[in-house]
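Reopening: Nephrocystin 3-like N-terminal domain-containing protein still failing for me.
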Amino acid sequence: MPSTAPAPVLPGLEPLNSAPPTSSSAILPPTASSPPQHIHAREMLRNAHDFVLNYPQFNHFSPVAFGIERLLRHSMPDAFHNSGARYPPPKCHLGTRKDYIALVTNWALGVSDRKEPILWMHGPFGIGKSAVAQSCAEALAPMKKLTTTLFFSRSSTDRDDSRRVFTSIAYQVAAICPSFREIVDVCMIDDPALATKSLSTQFEDLLVHPLARVDIAESGLDGRTVIIDGLDECRGTAAQCEIIQIIATSARKRTTPFRWFITSRPEDAIIRTMNSAAVSSVRSRIELPVSRAIDHEILTYLTDGFKTIRESYGLPESWPSEEVLALLVKHGAGLWIYVATMIRFIGDENSLGPEDQLQIVLKFIKGISAKPGVDNPLAEMDFFYTLIMERIPLKLKTTIRKILLLHSLCNMVPRDIAFALHLSAKQLRHACASIQSVMELQGSDLAPRTLNFYHASFLDFMKNPQRSKELCIRGDFLIGWRRELLGWLHEVCSRSTDSSHTVFPSDTIPLEDRSGAYHYSCVLVCFWELCQVPPHQFDPQTAMSVAELPFNKMPGLMDDRFRWWINATLVRNNLPAHLRDKIIREGKCPISGCTNIKNIFILGHGENESVPEQRRGGFVVNHKVPPDGGCICHVW
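Support: Ran it again with your exact input. Result attached.
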């Protein structure tokens, strides 16, 4: 008999069936106080015999969209083209990039000479690939020719996870296709671990098999386009190539009804995969080069940008002069990120005004023009990033570099970054305002939520010592800050007794809206994060100081809400060989009576020795303290 259970509904969407609910208690969803019970017929009738069911009717019931909600938790909604996290998204300025947008949309609509199901657009950083992809998504969506979108960003941990690519695509397909939604909802309920399996398994079980059970013609899915932007910013080179291969296999075998539009930088691994025999037969390519051929589009963008600034500041229409515009267009040389950053810099509200900012840019351009060997906009972009950083006061510059370093290492939220740096939310926002031409701090003054970088190239620049030189946030800067945090931890541990009596050094001002234990936890996690960055070796003296930390006392000073995983192998690799086992060693649990027979990671040595909670490949930094005579090493 057909199921009478209601069709699953995506979180945040209205039910497809707007009929009033029935009064029968048999199909009401469970209340919050009574968690859902899943009883299958085979369980209910287990061991039953010698009975007859006359005209039976079985109604399958599961909580509405329970599986879809689980799928959402394993997706990347911040990477969708219409997500709030990306607002306002980069897109082509009105009247620009029309040829490329038309080329892609015509291919997506099936009215192009390009018949391959995969279209790959590649070009260097800052050339406008994401803007073209966004504009194409916004053009195709109202025509119901868009399936799903993913805009990767290596500067955001919510937008770079290869393990959540196909779950994100499946979730978005479910949003537009009710029959697909019902099938995937049941799949996720029957196998809750499905979203954690290999990429190929996810693709088969969340896309290929469910789509095979859908009437594609009736669903409207046939020929719709999937947009994957910035594949090179997806975490892991091997995963990037595997994603391409899985999609190409599906395109060859026609196991999915979609077209696939993929953009990326021309990275070697991606080029090799795209050019392989298995992929090239179903792939067409477009190059988006750095070219002076779009100078007229750059001029349009700059003209409109200066008009907005003029209106905001009441400047005359003659500002800036045509000669200045021509100079900016010349030095933009087809690199969109360059001119976009210039406009944000000139319009920076934390300055003496746009006229002064423009003079700084013009002086910068003249200085660059005089440098030998600087004849391309990619090199000029680095000089411009240097200009932005060098204009920050020295004391604030160090804080900014620490913020950038922490953000680039882990997914610590701005609030916790502020605690690690002993800053209030207001102070954090003030610091970030000095680089608002390259990033923005989203959220309220009281609770900034995310650091949003306009382009990944800025963090790439700051992490590369050859490009950013003395401004680099890695190398000596990281090692020096790590040593500074180590001294702070020694002092706090020597003064404090437990999490309710945390005593800070005299130069650390406690923040009122969090406990001292929370503040300490943020600093401790920050220290461990710096310890596991390869290859940043400890010198013997610093490593000995680490070995002398009271590891057995440190968990008791932490806030009990804090949990952070640390890769023990990466930390060991940064330690001198003769001191590794004094800080982190692998062996049997030393606690008497422990029944765990596996090797575990043990921190410290002698009277400072501590057994932390274990996680695969490392340990957890948290407040969990073993009971007297007990052990927590078995927790995996």
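The CA atoms of residues 91 and 267 lie 23 Å apart. If you still see a failure, please send the error message rather than a screenshot.
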